[in-house]
Amino acid sequence: MTPVNIVLGVIGFDCHSVGNKILEAFFTEAGFKVTNLGVMVSQEEFISAAIETDARAILVSSLYGHGEIDCAGLREKCIEKGLEEILLYVGGNLVVGKTAFAEVEEKFLKMGYDRVFGPDCSLEKVVELLNEDLDSRPKGND
Amino acid sequence: MIEEDRKICVDIGSTWTKAAMFNLSHDRFSVETRAVMATTTDHLPEGVYGVLHHLMPGHDWHSLESTPVPVHFASSAKGGLNVAVVGLVPEMTLQIARLAAFSAGARICAAYPYRLTRSCIAAIEQARPDILLLCGGTDGGNERYVTENARAIAGSAFCGTVVYAGNNQAVDHVSDLLSERDLRVTENLMPDFGRLNIEPVRETIRQVFLERIISGKGLDELVRRFKTQPVPTPLAVLNLVEAIGNHVAGWDNFAMIDMGGATTDFYSFCEAYYPDSGTILKGIVEPTLKRTVEGDLGMRVSAASAFETARELLLANLEGSEQSLEIMSAYIDRLAANTSHLPADLAEQQFDQLLASACVYHSLMRHAGTIEEVYTAKGPVWAQSGKDLRRVNRIIGTGGFLAAMGRAGDALEMPVAPAVKSDKIPLLPKDFEYFSDSDYVLPLLGCLAAKYPQQSAATAVSYLTSLHHNEEQVKEFSHREFTHA
User: Fold this and answer.
1) Do A51 and B193 count as a contact with CB atoms less than 8 A apart?
2) How far is it, in rounded angstroms, from Cα B434 to Cα B418?
3) Do A33 and B377 touch (CB under 8 A)?
4) Is residue B114 one of the residues assigned to a domain?
5) Are B438 and B401 in contact (CB under 8 A)?
6) Residue B345, Ramachandran bin (φ over 0: left; ψ between -120 and 50: alpha; else beta)
7) CB B302 within 8 A of CB B296
8) Distances from the Cα of B138 to the Cαs of B178, B373, B453, in angstroms?
9) Which of B7, B59, B152, B297 is positioned for an S-S bond with B264, CB 3.0–4.6 A?
């Protein structure tokens, strides 16, 4: 079976690269074909990569506290570019300060992300959810 | 007996057939004799035998005996093959396809991202490119666009060669759809996202190029007689640029501008991106050896389009002179009517200079990348896209006009800043020495560059005139020897 393509990267002007490398290794190990765009990735780059690789999910990280500004509008841009069916996951230190996670989650779900994760989530759990979500979603980006 | 130390190179241009005999001693060639005559467009070998006779009058070049000196030849094939490129994302596979086509010596007549609509197909049918380069998707990535585009091509009246360099998983589908066409399948030019794989596409286009050049006008006769394949002229020049960059000390950051009657070709040999320079890169890392071809910028056949493109720049440059854009426009019309026209007076010389500067300016701006300051939560950051030419410290000028200028001792002014201020700052060469190919040997030497890279590179550099040190050698401004062929 051909592996599922996913796109990974740290959005905005965020340079946190350690977690990004761990995610790349983890998802590759879990059987995905990972296109890792690294750090300081713009929304446009995520979308270009998702189109060319026919990715079924984009995994966005943000750790420097400006996630809200950086992540807003990605869903709309995906729809605009014909990626209606793509899964959008986001995780990290998404906002500055001590906002309750439920509140953060709600905010990002509203923006059109399918799953929202805090900094201490279990990666096994993320893979499990990703596989579930992929199974329930038609393979229809291309 | 064949004299192995001597080589004859012939460059069959659209207007002129040029030739030189080179002598190899130690590590480089020297020019012994040269010849030029009008290209015999009906049957190219006639003109070739003509120049060969000039070089070696003692030998009967029409006879089928073995040649006394190895002959290498290049043909421009009407200024290069026309290629239409079809990619997926504009700044990814489409941009890589452009770079690959240019580096194979082609001209690009159309470029389309995403899906080929009916109007795109109509435009391709009208432009009648020799090759359509179809790509898109990483290996195992997007298949839909390339297959839909293959279907659109299959249903069109386009009947040239299709080169497929897209997603390898879509090969069977694309092959089935295009089974009625001359389809060449090669490796994906972007197998993984952001990774360039230009060489296989380049080789495939070069192969098609050769078949096309040879198939008409008698070049097959030359292939049989001299037992060698021709090189497409633009590729010969590119090979030479690469040889210079790889083999000559001090020439690892340079650019070359080849300005002809129909196109202006810009070459650069330097690293495209310096990660230590405090900038981040957007898009792909462009190749060290890069060629771009501007089909709308030229001194004769393309003079009218160059004039249109450069209207604003020319207007600014004409300010304070006695001439006006209207008078220049009339001159451009005369050039369109007679593309072999040579400037008859000082005013016309000035117009040629202005036109040349405009071609240089626009071809450089299109070749160079840009940086832009973006404000972030962490302060300003520089974002680069395209190729950084700031470390280019030598620039060569070649082609009929620039060679003639070099013989007159004139250096062409290269822009160091854009004419119009913009947020996107072009990454132009800052501090460089200008060299003229005043003997106009580079296209001929290019024929030898693939086989003798070190020797031809050393020779090329030794024949250049540095116009910062040789200003006393002012010669008569002359177009006599070689014109804008």
Assistant:
1) no
2) 19
3) no
4) yes
5) no
6) beta
7) yes
8) 20, 31, 34
9) B297
Residue A30: inside a domain: no
The residue to which tokens 């040879």 are assigned: B214
Question: Nearest Cβ partner of B93 from A13, A42, A52?
Answer: A52
CA angle B262, B134, B295 (to 5 degrees): 10
Contacts of B278 in chain A (CB under 8 A): none
Closest C-alpha among B184, B127, B177, B183 to residue B152: B177
Confidence of residue B209 (pLDDT cuts 50, 70, 90): confident
Q: Same domain, yes or no, for B380 and B449?
A: yes
What is this model's ipTM? 0.83
Interface membership of B378 toward A (CB under 8 Å): yes
Chain-wide mean pLDDT for chain A? 91
In a domain, A123, yes or no: yes
Give the position of tokens 């037992």. B227
Task: Dig out the tokens for A105 from the structure.
Answer: 């989650």
In whole angstroms, what separates CA A86 from the centre of its chain?
Answer: 10
Q: Which of B135, B142, B188 to mutate to test the interface with A (most CBs of A within 10 A)?
A: B142
Domain that holds residue A102: 77-142
Structural domain contains residue A63: no
Question: B184 and B63, same structural domain?
Answer: no
CB contact at 8 A, B206 and B238: no
Q: What are phi and psi of B474, to 5 degrees?
A: -80, 120
- Position B78 pLDDT exceeds 90: no
Instruction: Please report whether residue B220 resides in a domain.
Output: no
Query: Which of these three, B210, B244, B268, is where a domain ends?
Result: B210
8 Å CB contact of A13 and B91? no
Residue in chain B nearest A69 by alpha carbon: B377
Residues B93, B68, single domain; the answer is no
C-beta atoms of A53 and B142 within 8 A: yes
Query: Does residue B161 sit in the same domain as residue B291?
Result: no
Mean pLDDT (whole number) for B214-237: 85
For residue B60, the domain's CATH number is: 3.30.420.40
Total structural domains within chain A: 1
Residues B89 and B169 in one domain: yes
Domain for residue B224, yes or no?
A: no
- In tens, the pLDDT along B145-185 reads 999 999 999 999 999 999 999 999 999 999 999 999 999 99
Instruction: Please give the residue range of the domain that contains residue B201.
Output: 82-210
How many domains does the structure of chain B reveal? 3
Tell me: do B30 and B164 sit in the same domain.
no
Interior CA angle at B464 toward B241 and B49, to 5°?
75
- Residues B269 and B290 placed together within one structural domain of the fold: yes
Cβ atoms of A50 and B193 closer than 8 Å: no
Q: Nearest-CA neighbor of B148 among B118, B123, B126?
A: B118
Q: Is residue A16 flagged as an active site residue?
A: yes
Q: A54 vs B280: CB contact, 8 Å cut-off?
A: no
- Domain end (from B77, B101, B135): B77
Shortest CA distance to A48 belongs to which of B482, B142, B73, B251? B142
Judge contact between B184 and B133, C-beta under 8 A.
Answer: no
B433 and B409 in a single domain? The answer is: yes
3-state SS record for B275-288? HHHCEEECCCCCCC
| Residue of B190, B280, B282 lying closest to A52 (CB–CB) | B190
Count of Cβ atoms closer than 10 Å to residue A128 Cβ:
12
- pLDDT the model gives residue B260: 87
Flag whether pLDDT at B471 surpasses 60: no
